[in-house]
Design brief:
Blueprint: H1 8-19, H2 23-28, E1 42-47, H3 54-65, E2 71-77, H4 94-97, E3 103-109, H5 121-130, E4 135-140, H6 146-150, E5 156-161, H7 166-172, H8 176-179, E6 182-185, H9 193-206, E7 218-220, H10 226-246, H11 248-275, H12 285-300
Parallel strand pairs: 1-4, 1-5, 2-3, 2-4, 5-6, 6-7
The chain binds guanosine-5'-triphosphate and magnesium ion.
Length: about 300
């Protein structure tokens, strides 16, 4: 497919269909079946507090990495309806990007998903794989849950912070600080960026890394400073090489596959719980358990008997 130009219309339709698909529909249309995950698009996640400059950075990075690569950007936007112009940050005009044939950008609302991501995100990214993307960038706003949910979905996770996000770092210390592969203090043109970077370095260094583990670097970026975007891009490449060299990507892919099925079962279970009346709760716990499993099986139409 790579030899042919990207079919934007077909991709757009596929993504819309998947974004709205029920669990049963997802199971029925597993377009990804049999595909070798090793050939999947390389996935780069960007998360961080609102307004940190994620979209602006993603836009610049996509422009920089695009030549010779088919690049996709999926932005998960909790507030949903945003103008096209804000999609990649107001520092980049959409017309700079919209005529680039091998660059595809799309945003999704976070809908009912309780984790701050969009329903069916694994399926949306799998669709990008089947359209032969080389890389997919996923932007999520760090709202507590989203970074946990995005972690298994991506290969390299970039946490974007602001010069004055000290409180955020304190709050996130336990969780996301341990998950990020690259820390970025953006808006380094503003006062306080260096101090913030030093604080992040200090906190990140509290985590013990063995010698053959990846040590998450702390970078200073400014959307309008091209060399800082180049450095970020180079660091992503280094992390990718590390994952390949250390064999860590193979275990990441396994985790991702497990997460995908777990998410589907959780989502369908929540729906079953919602649909079953209060009488259901009068049964013994064992019966409730079996009733739920039977209901899940019948909804997925996978019941063999
Ligand atoms: N001074 C300065 N401002 C920046 C920089 N990068 C982005 N901004 C501005 O910061 C604001 C937010 O940028 P976005 O790229 O939309 O940030 P975001 O993290 O994607 O925001 P949400 O998606 O709403 O969470 C915009 O007004 C940008 O112009 C930077 O390097 N320096
Ligand atoms: Mg954004």
């Amino acid at each position: 497919m790579k030899n042919e130009p990207l079919d934007r219309r077909a991709l757009g339709l596929a993504l819309t269909r998947l974004a709205n698909a029920t669990v049963a529909e997802v199971l029925a249309n597993d377009a990804h079946a049999g595909q070798n995950p090793e050939n999947a698009a390389y996935r780069i996640g960007f998360t961080g507090p609102p307004g940190a400059g994620k979209s602006s950075l993603v836009g610049r990075l996509a422009q920089l990495r695009n030549p010779g690569r088919r690049m996709g950007v999926l932005a998960i936007d909790p507030s949903s309806q945003k103008s096209g112009g804000a999609l990649l940050g107001d520092r980049i005009r959409m017309d700079e990007l919209e005529n680039i044939q091998e660059l595809y950008i799309r945003s999704f609302g976070s809908r009912s998903a309780s984790d701050g991501l969009t329903d069916n995100l694994p399926e949306l990214i799998a669709a990008m794989d089947s359209f032969a993307f080389d890389e997919v960038i996923i932007e999520t706003v760090g709202v507590g849950q989203a970074e946990y949910a995005v972690r298994p979905q991506v290969d390299t996770l970039v946490l974007v912070l602001l010069p004055d996000s000290g409180d955020t770092v304190q709050a996130m210390k336990a969780g996301i600080m341990e998950m990020a592969d690259i820390f970025v203090v953006n808006k380094s043109d503003l006062a306080g960026a260096r101090k913030m970077a030093a604080d992040v370095k200090r906190i990140a260094s509290l985590r013990k890394h063995s010698q053959n583990e990846w040590q998450p670097p702390v970078l200073l970026t400014s959307t309008d400073a091209a060399p800082s975007i180049q450095q970020l891009s180079d660091t992503i490449n280094q992390h990718r090489e590390f994952l390949d060299r250390s064999g860590a990507r193979a275990s990441l892919l396994q985790e991702r596959a497990k997460y995908r099925i777990k998410r589907l079962i959780e989502r369908e279970t929540a729906q079953v719980m919602h649909d079953l009346g209060p009488d259901f709760l009068k049964a013994s716990l064992l019966e409730q358990y079996h009733l739920t499993l039977a209901e899940l099986a019948s909804r997925s139409k996978l019941k063999t008997s």
